[in-house]
Amino acid sequence: MEPRVSPRISASLLLALLALFALDVLVDASVHDYAKEKFIPRGNAFVLNGGSEGLYASSLTTGGNIRSPASGNGDSFIRFEKITFRRPKEPSTSSKEDDTKYVQAIIFEVEDRETIGGSAYGGQRAICCTPDLAKLGACTQGRVIYRPSEHNPEWPQVLTVTFKGNDLVATLLPETVHITRTGMYNLYFIYCDPSLSGLVIEGKTIWKNPSGYLPGRMSPLLKFYGGISLAFVVLGIFWFLQYARFWREVLQLQNSITLVIALGMFETALWYFEYAEFNKTGVRPIGITIWAVTFGAVRRTVSRVIMLVVSMGFGVLRPTLGGLTSKVIMLGATFFLASEVLELVENAGTINDLSGKAILFLVLPVAVLDAFFILWIFTSLSKTLEKLQAKRLTAKLEMYRKFTNALCAAVIVSVGWICYEIYFKSTDVYNERWQNAWVIPAFWHGLSFSLLCIICALWAPSQNSTRYAYSDDGSEELDQEDTISLIKPAPLRSKDNWNLSSPDGKTALTIDPTPVEEGKRE
């Protein structure tokens, strides 16, 4: 049994340890493959992050004990398979045959992070046992310092591999660690002996939740994408029925909305199948992921471009965009490329290789382009509303006011949610609120779907669709009420008369519009 120490570890030490791979929560697989991964020096230890995932307690447990060792449905575990450690071919120093060096795999729940590490006499905290602590009998020199969890005395779980003498290879026997308590679990491979410098690891670990291989923070998204896919189908049925019913009255704008609905249906369906496959195998299906990301990027781009051109009055006040067409296309293409790259890196890339600065470098262009879209949309809307009001086109004006109100509400909600996201992530350094993390990506899908529903309600095909279309015959200059007031005949006054003269200047005919009484007519 491993010796343990009671000194508490400082928060800064564990923060440095966990911050090695703060982005590991965004893992791209529940099957973590290690292909000659190298260890990184941290303090007096050499550390490799093996994974960090939220895991739910096994549904096969009763009172904290596993009812069945089977790894079927309902079981939750971390399994080690073919884990091999390799030293450089020529060790830097020769060792005696009885000299033993240790590599340890330590699994702990994030709220038990203070159980790792310690110090002697209140000195500097360390991950590996120091000579001073070894003299106190608190731990074994050359091994990781840890003490039992207050919640479960059997945790943290520590697996040890030994190198004897100048051995170049050491193997960890297959091992399955069952999860009996819901929490965010971290796995680190650690060695303390500098003579093992250059050590690499091969093999894999498999992380499973009771419902499948999806990481705990992502598992609710499977049901969410199933639900929103169904919602898109319902919206699509409504829209296509209206489209088929009034196909003779369909405008170009309504064709664009049809495209957005179709893209949304494909995108959400692909995400559902991607998550279902991920949950089944533990590895993301890259082909489906790329298609889902691409459909999503196209949908977001088309949606923004449509809102921009509608805000400019295209198809309502103007037949073309004129010289602005190339600028709109350029902005849309740039946004598509930036969004596609960001989503591919986040969903299909190797997250572990990206630092915070690299992610920020990809997020900033998308954020700046989004802000530019919003600024341009509202500037154009302001001008369009002024024109509609000046021309007294009340029907179109009312429609644009509703559209403006919907956009304003969406922007206000978005800003509020961004503030919440910043608060959520800044106050959850160790990802302890992982069970609620799925709400963040789900919110943006829900908001965009809600805005699409509002646009569909405003521009749904109907027998009066053409009243909102641009017309060059001058009829759009005045509304029906104005037209009626102009063509209504005015009463003629009795003193009015018209004289029609002949070409020679003599009066040919005089018309006296004075009313003639019926009895005086000849």
UniProtKB/TrEMBL annotation:
Region ranges (Disordered): 493-522
InterPro entries (alphabetical): GOST_TM (IPR053937), GPR107/GPR108-like (IPR009637)
Signal peptide: 1-29
Transmembrane segments: 224-244, 256-275, 281-298, 305-338, 358-382, 403-423, 443-460
Membrane-topology annotation of the record: Multi-pass membrane protein
Gene Ontology CC entries for this record: Golgi apparatus; membrane
Keyword GTP-binding: no
Pfam family name, one: GOST_TM
Domain GOST seven transmembrane: 220-465
Transmembrane helix found in the keyword field: yes
Predominant place of localization: membrane
Subcellular location: Membrane
Keywords tagged on the record: Membrane, Signal, Transmembrane, Transmembrane helix
Protein name (database record): GOST seven transmembrane domain-containing protein
